[in-house]
């Protein structure tokens, strides 16, 4: 796993095309252009600008040169909050092998040790049991239910909210 770069646009496009149907129930409806290398390159420019500003970090999980997962720390807020959101997916051919759990654990350590964050939040669709297991294995706890939280697959859907606290109370 490593920070994504602008020259990863082709790998991102290929991964999204390969997983388009698989990811559709879990993601917002995407415009057709989203699946192109040009769209992914432009998105990477924006995400890396956010990285430069300390507001987000896009990571890719690779098997050789093939992107097999995407993990994003987003919406980083500093000051007294010191928090970020987490989003992720793993390629359909690699799902169920523990890769997401291992990658999320690495991101938790990175957020704590390198970014100095205090908290990470993530949300899952109510029926996304696999993602809930990933979060629980990585030390997250469920903190609530958010009605109509995100528009996923064209419908406003409820989400379970999870968080992990990265530092002791005194830190």
Low-confidence stretches: none
Whole-number tally of structural domains = 1
CATH superfamily: Gcn5-related N-acetyltransferase (GNAT)
Please state the CA-atom Rg, rounded to the nearest Å: 16 Å
Backbone shape: globular
CATH architecture: 3-Layer(aba) Sandwich
GO molecular function: protein-N-terminal-alanine acetyltransferase activity
Domain N-acetyltransferase: 2-162
GO cellular component, one term: cytoplasm
Pfam family, one: Acetyltransf_3
Brief rundown of the structure:
32% of the residues lie in helices and 35% in strands. It contains five helices and seven strands; from the N terminus they run βαααβββαβαββ. The chain has a seven-stranded mixed sheet with strand order 1-2-3-4-5-7-6, with helices on both faces.
Describe it.
It is a single chain. It is built from five helices and seven strands; from the N terminus they run βαααβββαβαββ. It has one domain: Aminopeptidase (3-Layer(aba) Sandwich), CATH 3.40.630.30. With 171 residues, the chain is of the alpha+beta class. The longest helix is centred in the first third of the chain and has 16 residues, at 37-52. Helix 1 (9-18) crosses helix 3 (37-52) and helix 4 (99-113) crosses helix 5 (129-137). Keywords: Acyltransferase, Transferase. GO terms for molecular function: protein-N-terminal-alanine acetyltransferase activity. Belongs to the acetyltransferase family. RimJ subfamily.
């Amino acid at each position: 796993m490593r920070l994504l770069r602008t020259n990863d646009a082709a790998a991102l496009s290929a991964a999204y095309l390969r997983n388009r149907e698989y990811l559709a129930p879990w993601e917002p409806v995407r415009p057709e252009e989203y699946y192109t290398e040009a769209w992914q390159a432009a998105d990477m420019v924006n995400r890396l600008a956010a990285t430069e500003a300390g507001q987000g970090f896009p990571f890719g999980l690779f098997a050789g040169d093939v992107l097999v997962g995407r993990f994003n720390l987003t919406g980083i807020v500093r000051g007294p909050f010191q928090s970020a959101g987490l989003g992720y997916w793993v390629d359909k051919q690699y799902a169920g092998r523990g890769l997401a759990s291992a990658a999320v654990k690495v991101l938790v350590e990175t957020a704590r040790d390198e970014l100095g964050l205090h908290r990470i939040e993530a949300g899952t669709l109510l029926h996304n049991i696999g993602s809930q297991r990933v979060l629980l294995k990585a030390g997250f706890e469920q903190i609530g239910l958010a009605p109509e939280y995100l528009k996923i697959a064209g419908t406003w859907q409820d989400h379970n909210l999870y968080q992990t606290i990265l530092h002791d109370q005194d830190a």
